[in-house]
């Protein structure tokens, strides 16, 4: 018995509407996903995820669909809207993609990345961002962060590569004792079978990712997506050309950062400078 097609939600966003229209025109043409796959040269599984809005369509698909269905530019127009909108569910999808990723590459300019934070450091961050927040809410936020960190202990665990700006190590949250524990935790993750950590020193100067953070997720099928985060919000980037641009910026930083061994020595020197 064939699986029942997943219900679509075209009113949720332009990306969801794109997927719903693709299914509608495909079914109107009496075409299965396998049949459409032969026409557009995209795998059946990838087309299924586009219909359910799990992934953005590749840039080549809208024009091919318009040609196949005779839709006079409808899919081209929907794609333009979908590629520019801010999705209300972006952060949830970011978490889903992080959990599915086989390779995670991150750069942070100001804070220890969430996957490497200690409990006391995270609590200090939460309290700094909202001093009036109740302690039990901070604990709830920490439990959510801890659940993310569980993926690093999965079998198999993803390969994690992190670059931290020197400012991350120098800027104290929670006081010297909290920072000493946090830096010690970073030391433990500097070079392991599944993780590497590199420090980008101030002497490197300016770079393309200054002022924010970036996460690059490589999925099992080789698909790459990026999460670009600023002061108050983040953007999930799925357009291949945009992701390649972010990947290039990340690779340049990795080439310029200290090696994991030298990064460990640098972290130890920062720990030694902390007041006792």
TrEMBL record:
UniProt domain HTH cro/C1-type: residue ranges: 22-57
GO molecular function terms attached to this record: DNA binding
Classification via PROSITE patterns: HTH_CROC1
The keyword Signal belongs to this UniProt entry's keyword annotation: no
Gene3D superfamilies tied to this protein: lambda repressor-like DNA-binding domains
Stored SMART domains: HTH_XRE
Domain of life the protein comes from: Bacteria
Cited Pfam families: DUF5753, HTH_31
UniProt KW keywords: DNA-binding
Full protein name: DNA-binding protein
Organism classification: Bacteria, Bacillati, Actinomycetota, Actinomycetes, Kitasatosporales
């Amino acid at each position: 018995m064939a699986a029942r097609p997943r219900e679509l939600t075209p009113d949720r966003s332009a990306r969801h509407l794109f997927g719903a229209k693709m299914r509608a025109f495909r079914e109107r043409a009496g075409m299965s996903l396998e049949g459409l796959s032969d026409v557009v040269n995209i795998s059946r599984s990838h087309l299924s995820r586009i219909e359910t809005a799990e992934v953005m369509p590749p840039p080549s698909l809208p024009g091919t669909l318009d040609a196949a269905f005779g839709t006079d530019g409808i899919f081209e127009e929907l794609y333009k809207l979908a590629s520019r909108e801010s999705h209300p569910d972006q952060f949830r999808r970011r978490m889903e993609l992080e959990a599915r990723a086989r390779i995670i590459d991150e750069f942070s300019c100001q804070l220890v990345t969430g996957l490497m934070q200690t409990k006391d450091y995270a609590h200090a961050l939460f309290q700094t961002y909202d001093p009036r927040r109740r302690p039990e809410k901070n604990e709830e936020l920490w439990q959510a962060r801890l659940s993310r960190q569980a993926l690093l202990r999965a079998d198999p665990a993803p390969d994690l590569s992190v670059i931290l700006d020197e400012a991350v190590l120098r800027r104290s949250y929670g006081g010297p004792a909290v920072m000493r524990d946090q830096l010690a935790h970073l030391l433990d993750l500097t070079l392991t079978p599944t993780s590497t950590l590199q420090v980008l020193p101030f002497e490197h100067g300016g770079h393309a990712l200054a002022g924010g953070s970036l996460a690059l997720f490589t999925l099992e099928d080789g698909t790459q997506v990026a999460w670009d985060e600023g002061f108050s919000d983040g953007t999930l980037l799925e357009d291949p050309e945009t992701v390649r641009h972010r990947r290039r910026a990340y690779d340049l930083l990795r080439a310029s950062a200290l090696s994991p061994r030298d990064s460990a020595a640098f972290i130890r020197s920062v720990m030694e400078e902390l007041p006792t």
